[in-house]
TrEMBL record:
Keywords: Antibiotic resistance, Cell cycle, Cell division, Cell membrane, Cell shape, Cell wall biogenesis/degradation, Membrane, Peptidoglycan synthesis, Repeat, Transmembrane, Transmembrane helix. Belongs to the transpeptidase family. GO terms for cellular component: plasma membrane. Residues 657-716 form the PASTA domain. PROSITE patterns: PASTA (PS51178). GO terms for molecular function: penicillin binding. One of its GO terms (biological process) is cell division. It is found in: Cell membrane. It is a single-pass membrane protein. This is Penicillin-binding protein 2B. It comes from the Bacteria.
Length: 719
């Protein structure tokens, strides 16, 4: 029988719904309570999610430390480069304010004036199909602020710029392999800061941790509309800027050396070349250069040679090694300048040793043997000392050991010393390999009273946030000889320059005594493993110390395999073309430093960098100095002479602004005045003739950066 009682059924359903609802409420309440207590759902922190929803942060960028020369002139600094981009799509544009390239013909014609691309090449970029935007290859990258500003003033629709932090090397070619460079890691071009710049070689690499700063951060609360919440806490972590580094390099000498090296390099195209000027009393490197080299900002030439030749390249030193052999023999009491020996050839177990004159000069004194650079004389001296004793001296002078420069890939060199012939060869610089840094370090012992100084290229580091300085003190790394031995060795080395038979007679400089030793070292052919023979397949060198009685500078030059086409110049003649101008200039600066205080019309140069051009000119009004401004900017960024340096009235002062470098009117200037502009800009000037400027190939006010070389014609007043 069917149940006909609907009321009873409804009551059961109601009871079921009631208890079901109670159960659901219990579960829901429990879940809510659980969430309230735990503060998370499915493992996600709800409070953190809310905080993330309304919390914003911004990066406070740190600066990479600046590298300065010894006088405080910038050598490497942070900058911003700009990459040119053309927007082709009209997707984001409107007719009143187009955001894309409208007139491609006009755009290409205008951009041609600012980047190294022809109108046709630019049009080809702009006419590409199915692209929203295009870039302009390498020619459109690393643009300066002045170039960017110039393009912006043309008001070209659709032309925009991407900013990228970069490293600026304002002097161009300037000890480039020693200083190195910093760049963004490969592939990083967007959303980067200066802290992403990484040292790739040289000092930039060796001191990357010191130079690299740490970005800060600002954390704050915003509402759903993007406004900062009133009275909310702002958490700020200040950025830590990288430390600044001051080099030992003197910009005046460095730029001058680079100019001389460039002239010789262009003229003779050597396979490799180095020149270094060092203070033997401190080990401070005043100027150093190598070829091949590169422009630090543009990287032009970097593909020719990545190697820092000063510390990474090893070579046989040749007869400059005789400086150390002589000092060791004097120290051991076996060098008698008045004793005689038979020159020409010497037989040694395993072979024979020959002088560069195969027939020799007969029986001559050891002093004459030094002057003539006799290999036989020095092999005899090594025998008199004994192989073990000579090896101990080589070790004491640091031969076969790194100088612990801190620079990447510093080589040790090698010494072949197993057999009598090998041992004798080392006495005149053959059969062993060295680095330029090793030789410079060893030479300081001769020029510095027996105390051997570590070569230094950093004078101090400065905390750029606090100004706290850390001075890099000169470091004595050994005393292989006594002061008396060093003085006597210098006296003997003068024979090389002043003896009528000396190999260094052409290294005399009027008004100064020079102690020096020349060298011509053989080179091993990498294919045959034998020495090259004949031609200019040698490493020509000189190590000169001046003034000889108390050296203040050592100039060490090496030139490998120069190309000499006219037959009138020798390999050593190429070395002299570097030596004479550089050593003369270095000694002139020394003399100026000694005499400048006694000048009645002396003027102490004030500091005018970091202030406006107008303020700088006003501060120099009463100094009786001849002021020239290079550049069209409004702030002075470099000056020559440096602040606190003493000059004399009517001398030319050159100031460089933060704008594009513009060519001054140099008519009537002296060569020295022109070289001041070369020093401060890092640009190469080529001189024709002697006297005063009568013409310049770049018009006044023209952009100096648009040309690689500037030619200046000089004439004497009589002409």
């Amino acid at each position: 029988m069917t149940n006909k009682n609907p009321l009873k059924n409804r009551k059961k359903v109601a009871i079921l719904l009631f208890f079901g609802t109670i159960l659901l409420l219990t579960v829901f309440t429990g879940r809510i309570a659980f969430i309230m207590v735990k503060g998370e759902v499915n493992g996600e922190d709800l409070s953190q999610n809310i905080n993330n929803l309304y919390t914003r942060s911004s990066i406070l960028e740190a600066n990479r430390g600046t590298i300065y020369d010894v006088g405080g002139e910038s050598v490497a600094m942070d900058a911003t480069s700009y990459s040119l981009v053309a927007v082709l799509t009209d997707e984001w544009s409107n007719s009143e304010d187009p955001q894309h390239v409208v007139d491609k013909e006009k755009t290409a014609e205008t951009l041609e004036k600012y980047i190294s691309m022809s109108k046709e090449e630019i049009l080809a970029k702009l006419n590409q199909k199915d692209l929203n935007q295009v870039e302009f290859s390498e020619e459109g990258k690393n643009l300066s602020y002045d170039t960017k500003k110039g393009i912006e003033e043309e008001n070209l629709p659709g032309i925009v710029f991407e900013e990228t932090p970069t490293r600026l090397y304002p002097n161009g070619i300037f000890a480039s392999h020693l200083i190195g460079y910093a760049a963004l890691p490969s592939g990083e071009e967007t959303d980067v800061s200066s802290t992403d710049l990484t040292g790739m070689m040289g000092i930039e690499l060796a001191y990357d941790d010191l130079l690299k700063g740490t970005d800060g951060k600002k954390i704050y609360q915003k509402d759903s509309f993007g406004y900062v919440i009133p009275n909310s806490e702002v958490e700020t972590t200040e950025p830590v800027n990288g430390d600044d580094i001051y080099l030992t390099l003197d910009k005046r000498m460095q730029v001058y050396l680079e100019n001389v090296m460039s002239e010789v390099d262009e003229k003779y195209n050597p396979a490799m070349m180095t020149a270094t000027l060092i203070n033997p009393e401190t080990g401070a490197i005043i100027a150093t250069s190598q070829r091949p080299t590169f422009n630090g900002t543009t990287k032009d030439g970097i593909d020719q040679l990545w190697q820092n030749v000063l510390v990474e390249n090893t070579y046989e030193p040749g007869s400059t090694m005789k400086i150390l052999t002589l000092a060791s023999a004097v120290s051991e009491g076996v060098f008698d300048p008045n004793a005689y020996f038979q020159s020409g050839v010497k037989n040694v177990t395993g072979g024979s040793i020959h002088d560069h004159n195969p027939d020799g000069w007969g029986t001559i004194s050891y002093l004459e043997g030094l002057a003539r650079s006799s290999n036989v004389a020095f092999a005899n001296l090594m025998e008199k000392m004994g192989a073990d004793t000579w090896q101990e001296y080589m070790n004491a002078f640091g031969i076969g050991q790194t100088t612990n420069s801190g620079l990447a890939n510093e080589a040790k060199g090698s010494i072949a010393y197993n057999y009598p012939l090998e041992q004798a060869n080392t006495a005149f610089g053959q059969g062993l390999t060295v680095t330029a840094f090793q030789m410079l370090q060893a030479f300081t012992a001769i020029a510095n009273d027996g105390k051997m100084m570590k070569p230094q290229f950093i004078s101090k580091t400065v905390d750029s946030d606090t100004g706290e300085e850390t001075i890099v003190e000169p470091e004595v790394v050994g005393e292989p000889i006594t002061e008396e031995v060093a003085d006597q060795t210098l006296e003997y080395l003068k024979e090389v320059v002043y003896n009528k038979n000396g190999t260094g007679v052409d290294y005399q400089i009027e008004g100064y005594e020079i102690a020096a030793k020349t060298g011509t070292a053989e080179i091993v052919n990498p294919e045959t493993k034998q020495y090259y023979s004949g031609g200019t397949d040698y490493v020509y060198s000189v190590a000169a110390m001046a003034p000889a009685d108390d050296p203040k500078v050592i100039l060490y030059i090496t030139v490998q395999q120069p190309e000499i086409k006219d037959g009138s110049t020798t390999g050593s003649g190429v070395v002299k073309e570097i030596y004479h101008p550089v050593m003369k200039r270095a000694l002139e600066y020394l003399a100026l430093g000694e005499d400048e205080e006694s000048e009645e019309n002396a003027v102490e140069m004030p500091k005018v960098t970091g202030i406006s051009k107008d303020e700088a000119l006003k501060s120099l009004e009463g100094t009786q100095l001849n002021v020239t401004v290079v550049g069209n900017g409004d702030t002075i960024v470099q000056q020559l002479p440096l602040s606190a340096e003493t000059t004399i009235e009517n001398q030319r002062v050159v100031l460089m602004t933060n704008g594009a470098m513009t060519m001054p009117d140099m008519m009537g200037w002296s060569k020295n005045d022109v070289l001041k502009v070369s020093e401060i800009t890092g640009l190469e000037f080529i001189f024709e003739g002697e006297g005063y400027v009568v013409s310049q190939n770049l018009e006044p006010n023209a952009n100096m950066q648009s040309t690689d070389k500037i030619t200046i014609k000089l004439e004497t007043p009589q002409e």
